[in-house]
Design a protein that fits this description.
The protein is mainly α. The protein has a domain of 220 residues: MetI-like (MetI-like fold). It has twelve helices and no strands. α4 packs parallel to α12, α7 crosses α9 and α11 packs antiparallel against α12. It is globular and about 85 Å long. Keywords: Cell membrane, Membrane, Transmembrane, Transmembrane helix, Transport. Belongs to the binding-protein-dependent transport system permease family. Its main location: membrane.
Length: 321
């Protein structure tokens, strides 16, 4: 397992290099630059803009700009945000905790609901409860997250007033108090549920079908013939085999939820990495856009590595050299 992990980590290096090339040149292919929005003939001196472009190195050859960016990036210098006038690392450090909190909350909701509904449907298939859960699953898979987010804001925030429609915490509450954390949970619940709805529906249906399939296998009939209670068969034998794929999805979920939060954070005006990314794209804040994109790409690779390692841990039959 150690050799396999080291081999995968080393294999991530050329992948990150290729991603950096694509990210950089796509950013350069976008129209204009971070100074384009500052050009106003009524109050901006064109000579100042030209001087700033020269100072920032925008006039250098592309390969020189890439080498300078990637070497600075590897040393931990992500550049300075042209929109917020502060280091990109500090800017991401301010927004990242909110996105991580949103992703972890969504992950918790996803696995709790998927486990509960999947177990019920798998043990009682083709019943009324199973059909109702299946209806929820099909709706969760069919409805896009941005559509679900808009309707969730309209009904649960504006009509029912159960949840706030924007922000991550009540600004009037002192930081660090119990009320502060309760407010954060209250603000994150609705976007977290919308963010995890698709995964919840998919995993519920997956677990249900796997439980039904495993319940028909020979080892279940053998256990029944020996007088083993059905509850123990489900909890010890069937569930153990059915839950293995769900555990391995955890690595993929970590990266997918952070990336998927981009649209959700925009709908709910949740101040995280996703909202920062979209604002940076709109304002041509290239240092921030490239840093966030590289971070998300690295998380995808790390998520794949975690998924492979978890698969080897939860299933002893897997032997990775």
């Amino acid at each position: 397992m150690l050799k396999y992990t080291l081999r995968r980590v080393l294999g991530m290096i050329p992948m990150l290099f290729l991603v950096s090339v694509v990210v950089f040149f796509l950013a350069k292919a976008m129209p204009g630059d971070s100074l384009s929005g500052e050009i106003d003939p009524t109050n901006t001196n064109p000579e100042y803009i030209a001087e700033m472009r020269e100072k920032l190195g925008y006039n250098d050859p592309v390969y020189v700009q890439y080498y300078r960016w990637v070497t600075d990036f590897m040393s931990g210098d992500f550049g300075k945000s042209t929109r917020y006038k502060m280091p990109v690392a500090d800017l991401i450090g301010e927004k990242l905790p909110n996105t991580i909190f949103l992703a972890l909350t969504s992950l918790l909701i996803t696995y709790v609901l998927a486990f509960a509904m999947g177990m019920y449907s798998g043990r009682k298939p083709y019943t009324l409860g199973d059909n109702l859960i299946a209806g929820f699953n099909y709706a969760g898979i069919a409805i896009p997250s941005f559509v679900a987010g808009v309707f969730a804001v309209y009904f649960f925030a504006f009509k029912l007033n159960w949840f706030p429609f924007a922000g991550s915490v009540d600004i009037e509450i002192d930081k660090g108090t119990i009320e502060y954390w309760m407010s954060r949970i209250h603000h994150v619940m609705l976007p977290a549920f919308v963010l995890g709805m698709f995964s919840t529906a998919s995993y519920t249906q997956f677990l249900r079908n796997d439980l039904i399939e495993n319940s028909r296998k020979d080892f279940v009939r053998t256990a029944l013939a020996k007088g083993t209670p059905m509850g123990k068969i489900y909890n010890v034998h069937i569930l153990r085999n059915s839950i293995i794929p769900l555990v391995t999805f955890l690595g993929f979920d970590i990266a997918a939820l952070v990336g998927g939060a981009i649209i959700t954070e925009k709908i709910f005006t949740y101040p995280g990495i996703g909202l920062l990314f979209l604002d940076s794209v709109n304002n041509r804040d290239y240092p921030t856009v490239m840093a966030i994109t590289m971070m998300l790409s690295a998380m995808v690779l790390i998520g794949n590595l975690i998924a492979d390692i978890l698969y080897g841990i939860v299933d002893p039959r897997i032997r990775l050299g």
